[in-house]
Amino acid sequence: MRENIVRSAAGLLALVVVAWAPPDARAQVPGPESFAQEPKTPVELWGAIDYLVRTGQARQAVPYLEKFQQSDPDDDALITIRDKFGAGSFLRLSDHPDTQKYAHPLVEKLAAASRKVSADPQRVERLVERLKLSPEERNYAVSRLRESGPHAVAPLVDAIVKERPATPERSRLVQSAGRLGRETVPAWVAVLDSPEPHLAADAATILGALGDPRAVPFLTYPAAAADSPAALKVASQVAIERLTGKPFDDQPTSPTKLLVDSASAFARHRFELPSDAVLVWKWDDQRQGPAPTKAVLTDVEEYFGIKLAEQALKLDPANREARATLTGLSLEKAIERVGFGNFPAKDQASLGRAMAEGPTVLADVLREAVAQNKTDLAAVAADALGKVTSNDRLSSDGRPHPLVDALSTPGRRLQLAAAKALVDMAPTEAFPGSSRVAPTLGRFVMNQGQPHAVVIDGNPTRGAATSGMLEQLGYESTLEQTGERGFQAATEAADVELILVSHSLTQGRWDLLDVLTNLRSDARTANLPLYIYGPRNLETTRAHLPINYPGVKFLIQTSDVKSLERQLGGRPAKLTDAERLDQARQAAALLAQIAGRPNSPFAADLSAAESALTAAISTPDAALSASSALGDVPTPDAQRALADAVLDPSRDPALRRSSAERLARSIQRFGPMVASDQEVKLLDAFKNDDDPEMHAALGMVVGTLRNDRRLGVKAQADPN
Asked: What's the CA gap between 706 and 712, in Å, rounded?
């Protein structure tokens, strides 16, 4: 029951609906051969149309349909026709070829008229007044008010507050409101926020009578809060008992936990909207009643999710889960408002509030964002976490820190943010996973292209089809037919963000369990999204797999790209060329930062990034940082790449000088490893370069080369 309540609460949206009233007894009109009087008014014309269509004479109805359209009936006429003949009279037009083309336009026109009339405040007010009359009048008014859905609530609120509490007149209005449809629930939930305790209590009573469990989370805070007005508290508790079948004190979940779970449902997108735009009902202090606000998905998540999380914290200010949910949702919406590239520059306040929650809560936010594949939120959380975490906590419990786990989690923005956070923390001792930082930065320096996906399937036709669809979604896809080769591709390729494994592996020595075991036990793939694809019944026949291999999910084999996209939860994030270049520059600068700290636990792994740095020295935006880092890599290729940069007169003078200084330092520390022809060229450049600064830098290089005995003869041969 609790799970259903939480999930349904996330669907509590104010929707405008059209409720069709049952038709009255249909008037019988004579056949076309015996009309005593030719139909003229819209109602008369429709009477003829309805009769002809129902009696199998649809073709004869066409002239009357043409006349009906030409008469351009107003909304009142359409509603009169609907009430007299029923909505089915319009729908039946689509059953016959002769009248089919008229069906859709007329149904749409009727629906628009119904929506307009049902929301007409004067009509609703007249019906509300009839709720004060005889039982027969009340029944009629209730049936018509149901057509107005949530738009009937505000006039009802006005009528209720005019009557004194606990009077028979007010009780009848509340009782009648409790007979309206569930479409009114969102508006009555808004009335719970009324500052008038008796009105809020009436709203709770009405919600209990409407019988919709979606209201339970919104009744929970007033039912549990110590400062709730007595009338509201009791009414909310009674309503919850009525909706769940259990007294409030016997509910299986604590009030705080229920509120947190409900807030999380909004944060995790666990609901669907009937359209891109809906109405959210909120209490309007100026109007003194509920008022609708147009909203889209992100507005719904923010309003309800944050509201429920804040209520949970009011009940239990120290609740860690509630703090993490509120912090994550607030950060996510702040990023959406200003854009990832503008955060936190255009919203420092949101970042400040998040950092104030401390490392424990931010670590929870990071883990949850990773689990929900919210890579932008995860990147921001990683950055914030690095700013408030002391470096001695990186190895406090012997397990990889969440920032280390993020290094192998899909999402380039997240990986770079995590690596930067770890470097900026300036740890002095190795910790679990520290050897992964420099190689991760090396991949960014190489300025990679599309995100990578690996498909493992022994059936080449099926595997190729799956791989092709992934490429349509924006992945660079690799297909391997054996588990061994698939594992190798997933662990060795740069920037793998997704792995798909067929449920039936018939090639190679590894079966499905071998593949899953190895992929989940290797640090490079442990956090990657991993899907097993096959027939729909996998969740039943292989139900143990997600239990034994946490994070593994099932995917139904499909030939439809959109279906695959839905199951994967979207497409990979697209980065512009400018953003990739900026990431390369940042990564090279971070590697240079590592190189400048000989005692850093990352310095020993700089050689793993050598190939990337030697390539980056030819990239204008990253060249200076790359040259700085290469000076601390003890390999021949590193020195030779620096020498090439020094000797190239077309390169930027600042880069040539920097490379010369780093080359001299490298030779001092590791000995000369430049090529023989480079030694000669460096000496020639020193003799011939007339730029004072460059000449001095080249002199430093030549001096370090002459300091080596092996070069003594060459150096003495030309002391100038």
From this structure: 6
Q: Which residues 6+ apart lie within 8 Å of 174 measured at CB? A: 160, 202, 205, 206
Q: Rounded to a whole number, what is the distance in angstroms from the first to the last CA of the chain?
A: 90
Find tokens 């509603």 and name the residue. 79
DSSP assignment letter at 164: P
Compute φ and ψ for 108, nearest 5 degrees.
-65, -40
pLDDT band (50, 70, 90) for residue 25: very low
d(CA 531, CA 555): 6
Whole-number pLDDT of residue 167: 92
Structure tokens at 330: 């607030």
Give 412-430 pLDDT, tens digit per residue: 899 999 999 999 999 999 9
CA distance 419 to 207: 51
Dist CA 666 CA 391 (whole Å): 29
Q: Is 291 exposed, middle or buried (0-12, 13-18, 19+ CB in 10 A)?
A: middle
Whole-angstrom Cα distance, residue 293 to residue 597?
A: 56
Q: Are 665 and 629 in contact (CB under 8 A)?
A: no
Separation of alpha carbons 324 and 581, rounded Å: 33
Q: What is the pTM of this model?
A: 0.72
Residues 6+ apart with CB under 8 A from 202: 160, 170, 174, 177, 191, 235
Beta-carbon contacts of 454 under 8 Å, excluding residues fewer than 6 positions away, are 477, 478, 480, 486, 489, 490, 493, 496, 498, 499, 500
Contact 331, 301 (CB under 8 A): no
Three-state SS at 535:
coil
Contacts of 432 (CB under 8 A, 6+ apart): 394, 395, 398, 399, 400, 401, 404
Q: How far is CA 279 from CA 14, 16, 150, 183, 464, in A?
A: 5, 8, 10, 12, 44
- As a whole number, mean pLDDT of residues 361-386 equals 93
Joined tokens for residue 245 = 């079948």
